[in-house]
C-alpha cells in the first residue's frame, strides 16, 4: 500500500456475516425487542435486512438519506430523499435504526430527529462507529477512525445513471 493512500478497514462478505451476527446477539442480549427495524438507504439496507432476520423482526422499513457523494466527500448536511416514510407508521413502536457506519453521525441524528415524537423507544445499530460521531450508537460491532471498504460498495457500479463509466 502506498504512503499516499491511508490504511483502510476492509470488510469482506465472510467477516460481514460474523459481524452482523455478533451485532444481532448484542441487541438480543440487551433485552431490546424492536417492533420495527428501520434501515437507512443505501448503506444500511444490507445490515438492516440481515439484522431483521437475525432478531426475527418482520417489520422492516427504509428511509433514504443522502450524505456521502464519494470517498471522504459529502454534502454539507444529510438530506432525506423520496419516497418519504410516513412517521405516523412508527407511532408507539420500538424502533431499531440501522446503518452501515456512524461516521459523522449526522445521518443517524437526522433520522433520530425524524422519529422523535413518534416512536416509543429508538435505538441505533451500526457495523462501524467512528470516534467523532455526534451520535453514540447503542450497538456498534467495531470502532475505527479509518475509511471502510464495504463489500457491497467497494467495486464501481456496472452501469452509470449518466451512461458513462470511469475506466
Detailed description of the structure:
- The chain has 3 helices and 8 strands; from the N terminus they run E-H-E-H-E-E-E-H-E-E-E.
- The strands form 2 sheets. Strands 4-3-2-5-6-7 form a 6-stranded mixed sheet, sandwiched between helices. A two-stranded parallel ribbon has the order 1-8.
- The protein is an alpha/beta fold and 167 residues long.
- The longest helix is centred in the first third of the chain and has 18 residues, at 13-30.
- Helices cover 23% and strands 33% of the residues.
- The mean pLDDT is 90.
- Helix 1 (13-30) packs across helix 2.
- It has a single domain (8-149), classed as 3-Layer(aba) Sandwich (Rossmann fold), CATH 3.40.50.2020.
Amino acid at each position: 500500500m502506498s504512503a499516499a493512500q491511508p490504511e483502510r478497514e476492509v470488510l469482506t462478505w465472510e467477516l460481514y456475516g460474523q459481524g452482523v451476527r455478533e451485532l444481532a446477539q448484542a441487541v438480543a442480549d440487551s433485552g431490546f425487542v424492536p417492533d420495527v427495524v428501520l434501515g437507512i438507504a443505501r448503506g444500511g439496507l444490507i445490515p438492516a435486512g440481515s439484522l431483521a432476520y437475525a432478531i426475527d423482526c418482520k417489520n422492516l422499513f427504509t428511509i433514504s438519506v443522502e450524505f456521502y457523494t464519494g470517498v471522504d466527500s459529502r454534502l454539507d448536511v444529510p438530506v432525506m430523499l423520496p419516497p418519504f416514510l410516513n412517521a405516523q407508521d412508527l407511532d408507539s413502536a420500538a424502533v431499531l435504526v440501522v446503518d452501515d457506519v456512524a461516521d459523522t453521525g449526522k445521518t443517524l441524528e437526522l433520522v433520530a430527529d425524524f422519529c422523535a415524537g413518534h416512536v416509543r423507544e429508538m435505538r441505533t445499530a451500526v457495523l462501524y462507529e467512528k470516534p467523532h460521531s455526534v451520535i453514540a450508537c447503542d450497538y456498534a460491532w467495531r470502532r475505527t477512525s479509518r475509511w471502510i471498504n464495504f463489500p457491497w460498495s467497494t467495486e464501481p457500479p456496472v452501469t452509470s445513471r449518466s451512461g458513462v463509466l470511469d475506466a
